[in-house]
Write a structure and sequence with these properties.
It is built from 17 helices and no strands. It is mainly alpha-helical and 460 residues long. The protein has a single domain, classed as Growth Hormone, Chain: A, CATH 1.20.1250.20. It is found in: Membrane.
């Protein structure tokens, strides 16, 4: 199986051994475990879109107060993404991955038990902290176990579980909100955390991280088991030969740090990613957190606003599939710019349609086009980010990019709550469109292409 026994040989072949493996049911099983958590995270976060109107009515919240509540989970995500990224680069992906489940499950349960809006806001921060921990680690793990020629597609597909979870949250709210109210929704969403926590134990530690941490024999053991499982799953009698066996990952005497994100060629990448994440998430969450509530404000009943939001969100499924295909056919940079500009265009037109009280079919069609591009944007955003850093700082770099994005997420819903009374729905969606355009310009000017390259090649 081309497993080397010397420390130098192992160090020189870990990445090459992983990248030459055919994609079989074994890697897909590991991917499915990670993606399942992504799906339920999306349900928890997306639930607020469908139940914010009900919470706003029960507690008698003003638009500004409702916007602050919608933003509270993003403050937790800001903290979770930054802290978890650094911890994962220092202590490993797997242990931090497991801890995130505890914060997620407990936070969701406490949201359902909240008696007032202040307690609910605090619990949303706890829930957001767990979800924030999830993102940089999940991205890093998928990037590090999937072969280079499939990596972009699978990270994009991972993000595709976001619209699936979002739609599932809408379906759950539509059928269950009249029966168990918004508190029951949160309690129900805490249950999957237990199952995901158990199944995640089957996911091994990243061998690339083990190698970079100097734990050479452990890295070799994990890759050897990887090779055995791939052969078993694929019914293979031999594996492809290891090429470029002298390819060395990050030297074990070099440990990643936050400051490395701002040195050499990484500084431009970090600035680009931070600006991209900030403006993209400012626009996305500023709009989607309010979709249901804005429809209710326009005069639609609660159940109809939830149903229309589900219809609109369904377009995100073909959106992420198209994006997952395009990142490998065309490239990360071009796909990212296309999805951002498409999001801007249809966000603007949706705002005009909502303000003009057009026929419902036209409103839904415009909204579907908007969600097609916005969820496609998410796919390429997550595929692109972890590829721009070396293993020693991959989780830290991804975590801080996500964390800066959560500042945009935190600001977005609150800004909408303040802008809405003065500028109306057209002004709100024009603001979101401007955010997407700004993000697209940054990527056009500063982005680099990573399609088809190994992680080690990109990081050098």
């Amino acid at each position: 199986m081309n497993s080397t026994v010397s420390a130098g040989g192992i160090r020189g072949s870990i990445a090459a051994r992983l990248d030459r493996l055919p994609l079989t049911g074994y890697q897909k099983k590991l991917f499915a475990i990670i993606a399942t958590a992504w799906f339920f995270d999306s349900m928890d976060l997306g639930a607020m879109t469908f139940i914010l109107g009900s919470i706003k009515t029960e507690f008698g919240l003003t638009p500004a107060q409702a916007g602050l509540l919608a933003s509270s989970s993003f403050f937790g995500m800001f903290l979770g993404a930054a802290i978890a990224g650094m911890l994962a680069d220092k202590f490993g992906r797997k242990p931090v991955f497991q801890v995130s489940m505890i914060f997620w499950g407990v936070g969701s349960l406490l949201c359902g038990l909240s008696n007032d809006v202040d307690m609910l806001m605090i619990c949303r921060v706890i829930l957001g902290f767990g979800m924030g921990m999830e993102f940089p680690i999940g991205l890093s793990m998928v990037s590090e176990i999937v072969p280079a020629d499939k990596r972009g597609r699978y990270v994009a597909i991972l993000e595709g579980f976001w619209p699936l979870g979002f739609v599932a949250a809408g379906v759950l709210a539509y059928f269950c909100l009249p029966l168990i109210c918004w508190r029951g929704i949160f309690i129900a969403l805490s249950i999957p955390a237990v199952f995901v926590f158990v199944f995640r134990r089957a996911v091994p530690e990243s061998p690339r991280w083990l190698e970079g941490a100097g734990r050479i024999q452990e890295a070799d053991a994990v890759v050897t088991e990887f090779e055995r499982q791939v052969m078993k799953s694929g019914g293979l009698t031999a594996l492809p030969a290891v090429v470029n066996v002298n390819k060395v990952a990050d030297a074990v005497d070099r440990r990643g740090s936050f400051m490395e994100l701002w040195t050499g060629g990484y500084a431009k990448r970090t600035f680009m990613l931070w600006a991209l994440w900030f403006f993209a998430l400012l626009g996305y969450y500023g709009l989607t957190s309010w979709l249901g509530a804005l429809l209710q404000q326009a005069g639609y009943a609660v159940t109809k606003s939830v149903l229309y939001t589900v219809y609109i969100s369904l377009a995100g499924i073909p959106g992420f599939i198209f994006s997952a295909w395009l990142v490998e056919k065309w490239g990360r940079k071009g796909t990212c710019v296309l999805m951002l500009l498409g999001s801007a265009t249809f966000a603007y037109f949706y705002g005009q349609a909502a303000s003009a009280h057009v026929p419902e079919g036209q409103l839904i069609a415009t909204g579907m086009c908007m969600q097609f591009f916005m969820f496609g944007m998410w796919s390429v955003l997550y595929a692109y980010t972890p590829e721009l850093y070396p293993t020693r700082t991959r989780a830290t770099g991804s975590g801080f990019a996500s964390s800066i994005g959560r500042i945009g997420s935190l600001i977005g819903p609150s800004v909408v709550g303040m802008v809405l009374p003065a500028a109306g729905q057209s002004g709100v969606f024009t603001l979101g469109a401007a955010s997407f355009v700004t993000a697209a310009v940054v990527v056009m000017l500063l982005g680099v292409e990573t399609k088809g390259k190994s992680l080690e090649e990109v990081s050098k």
